[in-house]
Amino acid sequence: MDTKQLKKIAYSVLDLASVKEGHTPADSFANSLDLAKQVEKLGYTRYWFAEHHNMINVASSATAVLIGHIAGGTSTIRVGSGGIMLPNHAPLIVAEQFGTLASLYPGRIDLGLGRAPGTDQVTSMAIRGANFNLPHNFPKDIQKLQNFFSDDNWDSKVRAIPGEGLDVPIWILGSSTDSARVAAAMGLPYAFASHFAPTYFMEAISLYRENFQPSEHLDEPYVMACVNVVAADTESEAERLATSVQQFFLGVITGNRKLLQPPVEHMNNVWNISERYAVSQMLAYLFTGDREKIKKEIQAFVEKTQVDEIMVTSHIYDQGARIRSYEVFAEALKEIGASALAAH
C-alpha cells in the first residue's frame, strides 16, 4: 500500500448497544453516549448502530432512535446505521426517519443498508406480518430510497417529507458477495461485516472493486471493513478482556445467548474444542493486544486488504476498559499515519 492511503485511513465505531450482565438497556444507551463523546475527541469519523431484533444482549433494535440520541449528544462525529435492515421497513418510512435525522443534524447522518432481516425467522415474521412471504428486491428498494431523497421527486404523488432534497449518504452493507455486486453496480460505498462473517471478505471486496461503476455519489470504490478490537495497555490485559467477546460469540454459535459476560481467566473452562474452533473462525478478524501489537497487525491488515476505512466494534464488559481500547486503537492508527507521512 502506498504511504498516501496509510496516511489518510479513517477509523470509526460500530455499536450494538450490548447489554451487560447485571445491567439494563438504559445503562447501555448511557454508555453508548459516553463512548461517542470520547471517540469524537479521538478523531473517529463515524458512530454506527446495527439493527438487530429479539436478542437479549443487543439493544439497538430501534436504530433510528439511538442515532438521534447519539447525534444530539455529540457535535461533529457522523452518526448512522450499520445498518438498517431493509426487508423490515418500507423505503418511505426509512426516508422519512433519516430525513428527519438529517434535518436535525445536517451533514452528519449516514444510512447503511443491509439485505438481511437481522433476526431469526419467527421474529422476522412478527416484523413483516403479511409481507413476510412477499419477495424482497434489495436493489429496487435502494432505488426507491434514492428517489425519495432526490429533488426530482417533488412532483410525485408520494414524497418523503422531511427527506426530499437532503444529502443522506447511502452505504451498502454485506457479509457475502451478493451485496458487493449491488454496491458496485450502483456506485455506492461498501461496508463488509468481517467482524462476524470473515469467510467471503476478500472475495467480496475484490468483486466490488472489479465491477465498480462510478456514479454521482462516488467516483471510485470505497471499502470499509468492520473488525473486532480489544486493545489495552498490556497484551495480557487485552487477552483477558477479549474473553467477553469470545463468550458473546459462543452464545451466537450455540444459540445460548447471554447478556455480555465479564471476562474470565481461562476460556477452557467455558468452551469445548469444537466451540473454540467455531468461535475462532467467526473471529478471524479479532485484533487483541497492546498499542504496538495492534499497530503492527492493523498495518498488515490494511496493506493486505487496501481498505479505505476501518470500523471497530469492541465487546468489552468494563466501560472504562472499553473507552481505553478505543483510545489505544486511535493512538495506533495515528502512529501508522505519522510513520507513513514521515516516509513520504
Main features:
344 residues, alpha/beta, 8-stranded parallel beta barrel, globular
Structure characterization notes:
- The chain has 344 residues and is α/β, with parallel strands linked by helices.
- Helices cover 46% and strands 15% of the residues.
- Helix 2 (25-41) crosses helix 3 (63-73) and helix 4 packs across helix 6.
- The chain is built from 13 helices and 9 strands.
- The mean pLDDT is 93.
- It has an 8-stranded parallel barrel, surrounded by 8 helices.
Low-confidence blocks of residues: none
The largest β sheet comes out as: 8 strands, parallel, barrel
Report the principal-axis shape. globular
For the biggest β-sheet, the strand order reads 1-2-3-4-5-6-7-9
Secondary structure class reads alpha/beta
Query: How much is the average pLDDT?
Result: 93
Order of helices and strands: HEHEHEHEHHEHEHEHHHEHEH
* CA gyration radius, whole angstroms: 20 Å
SS element count, helices: 13
Please report the total strand number as a whole number. Answer: 9
Cα distance spanning the termini: 12 Å
> How much of the sequence is in beta strands?
5-15%
Q: Bin the helical content.
A: 40-55%
Give the secondary structure arrangement, pairings included.
Blueprint: H1 3-8, E1 10-15, H2 25-41, E2 46-49, H3 63-73, E3 78-85, H4 91-104, E4 109-114, H5 121-128, H6 138-149, E5 170-174, H7 177-186, E6 190-192, H8 201-211, E7 223-231, H9 235-241, H10 243-254, H11 273-282, E8 286-289, H12 291-305, E9 309-313, H13 319-343
Parallel strand pairs: 1-2, 1-9, 2-3, 3-4, 4-5, 5-6, 6-7, 7-8, 7-9
